[in-house]
Amino acid sequence: MAVHIRLARAGTKKKPFYRVVVTDQRSPRGGRFLENIGTFDPAKEMKVVDGKTPLQIDQERLTHWTGRGALPSETLGRLIKAAAKAEAAATK
User: What is the pTM of this model?
Assistant: First the structure.
């Protein structure tokens, strides 16, 4: 079973909200998943507010799954890099 880490859409019409999930690559976008490891709110700007960014991921579980061979999607990879960049800019 090939495992991927990707975004699963939630929220209402015209107001999307995404969960960061670990899932079998054959499952549909909003289908079954193995574990929910975070959230992403695209309505918010990618900057640190009150110590948080719009992308919230449990780093311990992300490391666990990537260590077991799970691959993040292309979009999620870009979001992780952008969140890391925003956190680095906030700590300067």
Answer: 0.87
